[in-house]
Design goal:
- This protein has 103 residues and is an all-alpha fold.
- Helix content is 83%, strand content 0%.
- Helix 2 packs antiparallel against helix 3.
- The longest helix has 37 residues.
- The radius of gyration is 22 Å and the shape is elongated.
């Protein structure tokens, strides 16, 4: 499988990347989920891949194609739209339940 075994420094780098780059965000995410709604909790893993092209532009300078941005806008627009609709429905339900309690 390998032409040669990775060096000791390569193993150290792999272990650090695996534990810090992947492990630490999961610790933060696990703690954050306790304080968020289900919808908000599900948005975090969805938004991360959408931000990757933006990070590439900022840090590497590589310009993405038009379809990358169109796709990202569609996904973000859909998620935001759903969130807005759900919040309006919740407000409407609260108004109805308050009216029912009064009268």
């Amino acid at each position: 499988m390998f032409q040669s075994m990775p060096s000791a420094m390569s193993w150290v780098g792999l272990i650090l990347l695996g534990s810090i780059q992947l492990g630490l965000p999961y610790v933060f995410y696990t703690n954050a989920v306790k304080h968020l709604s289900a919808l908000e909790s599900s948005l975090i893993p969805v938004i991360e891949p959408l931000l990757n092209p933006i990070w590439v532009v900022i840090f590497v300078g590589e310009i993405q194609g038009m379809w990358t941005y169109i796709g990202g806008e569609l996904v973000i627009g859909g998620v935001v739209g759903r969130y807005i609709l759900n919040s309006k429905r919740l407000k409407k339900k609260k108004k109805i339940s308050k009216k029912n309690e009064r009268g």
